[in-house]
Write a structure and sequence with these properties.
The protein contains 5 helices and 2 strands; from the N terminus they run βαβαααα. It has 115 residues and is mainly alpha-helical.
Length: 115
Amino acid sequence: MSIVGPRPLLMQYLDRYTPEQARRHKVKPGITGWAQVNGRNAISWEDKFKLDVWYVDNWSLWLDVKIIFLTIWKILKREGINQPGQATAEEFMPHAKALRFQAAWSGFLTVVKWR
């Protein structure tokens, strides 16, 4: 683990990443990161992943120094701590709509097969 890098997420999320989102693992995870100083828990999961991948593609020592100073500033201002209606952030469920559609389609096909 490093001081700056994409924040580590729960292991249960690993199979939920798209290939693009999984690119965040090309660098060591960190205590703070680009997504934390650009919205933290107040932004969507999709935005967090885009910011993490941007960090991977644009890493530099200067960027890490900038993130450290922005982190201190955000902590003092207490910005982005939670999402509306959540203590921190909602669970990462990227394919919820797709899974509901798949279940509905599967049920439809089962009904059609039995007729």
